[in-house]
UniProtKB/TrEMBL annotation:
<dbReference type="GO" id="GO:0006298">
    <property type="term" value="P:mismatch repair"/>
</dbReference>
<comment type="similarity">
    <text>Belongs to the RNase HII family.</text>
</comment>
<dbReference type="InterPro" id="IPR024567">
    <property type="entry name" value="RNase_HII/HIII_dom"/>
</dbReference>
<comment type="function">
    <text>Endonuclease that specifically degrades the RNA of RNA-DNA hybrids.</text>
</comment>
<dbReference type="GO" id="GO:0046872">
    <property type="term" value="F:metal ion binding"/>
</dbReference>
<dbReference type="InterPro" id="IPR001352">
    <property type="entry name" value="RNase_HII/HIII"/>
</dbReference>
<keyword id="KW-0472">Membrane</keyword>
<dbReference type="GO" id="GO:0005737">
    <property type="term" value="C:cytoplasm"/>
</dbReference>
<dbReference type="GO" id="GO:0032299">
    <property type="term" value="C:ribonuclease H2 complex"/>
</dbReference>
<dbReference type="InterPro" id="IPR022898">
    <property type="entry name" value="RNase_HII"/>
</dbReference>
<keyword id="KW-0464">Manganese</keyword>
<dbReference type="InterPro" id="IPR012337">
    <property type="entry name" value="RNaseH-like_sf"/>
</dbReference>
<dbReference type="Pfam" id="PF01351">
    <property type="entry name" value="RNase_HII"/>
</dbReference>
<protein>
    <recommendedName>
        <fullName>Ribonuclease</fullName>
        <ecNumber>3.1.26.4</ecNumber>
    </recommendedName>
</protein>
<dbReference type="InterPro" id="IPR036397">
    <property type="entry name" value="RNaseH_sf"/>
</dbReference>
<keyword id="KW-0479">Metal-binding</keyword>
<keyword id="KW-0255">Endonuclease</keyword>
Length: 227
């Protein structure tokens, strides 16, 4: 089993960066529910430690639900990282398409977290602009985030290769899964608590029987053909 490495992050900190932001999204291929984006900001102090309790952390898709929840719990308790969640709901996805919705949500999440860091730096009497100029965003995927005025690296399969991005994927996945369990109570019968909105055979069968709910993505073919 190949685990994501910390080599890139350590190299970036060694070259003078003060903060590394890593961003990933979950739920892109689902027929129902939102896309959830998580951005995590890491300090140099985080990567100065070994973190034995995170030793086998990897892409959220390669972990069991229990493993994801345990890693997410440990990550959010760590004082040397900050994170921010943001959401693209079905109406937005249908209006501007899934790719644009996910990228706009990434932009929003990063900007929210940057504002929080500015506040922290001001309290410490350190100029926020100085810190932000030494920041970089690691983006999972082939393309950078348009209109984001920060240095970026787009990394294909970043959630499998880069430790920081894998962390973002885990927090996002755990949060989205909990959202879908809550949605299952509001929209019963589809099995959302089991498949989390993905287009399984069971989900598509129930979709035909019950018709689309308010959280189904009407622009996605299996849903659109039922309208």
């Amino acid at each position: 089993m190949k685990l994501p490495r910390k080599t890139l992050e350590k190299k970036l900190f060694k070259s003078g960066y003060r903060l590394i932001y890593a961003v990933d999204e979950v739920g892109m291929g689902c027929l129902a529910g939102p896309v959830v984006v998580c951005v995590v900001a890491f300090t140099k102090k985080f990567f100065a430690k070994r973190h034995r309790h995170l030793e086998y952390l990897r892409d959220s898709k390669l972990l069991s639900s229990y493993q994801r929840e345990e890693y997410a719990r440990k990550l959010v308790l760590d004082k040397n990282i900050k994170y921010q969640l943001a959401f693209a709901y079905p109406k937005t996805i249908d209006n501007i398409n899934i790719y644009n919705a996910a990228r706009a949500t990434m932009l929003r999440a990063i900007n929210k977290l940057r504002i929080k860091h500015y506040e922290l730096k001001k309290q410490s009497a350190i100029r926020s602009t100085q810190s932000d100029n030494k920041s970089i965003v690691l983006v999972d995927g082939r393309t950078k985030i348009k209109t984001l005025n920060m240095e970026q690296l787009a990394i294909v399969k970043g959630d499998r290769k880069i430790f920081a991005i894998a962390c973002a994927s885990i927090i996002a996945k755990v949060h989205r899964d909990k959202m879908m369990v809550r949605y299952a109570k509001k929209y019963p019968g589809y099995g959302l608590e089991k498949h989390k909105g993905y287009g399984t055979k069971y989900h598509q069968t129930k979709l035909i029987e019950l018709g689309p709910s308010a959280i189904h993505r009407k622009s996605f073919a299996p849903v659109a053909k039922l309208l």
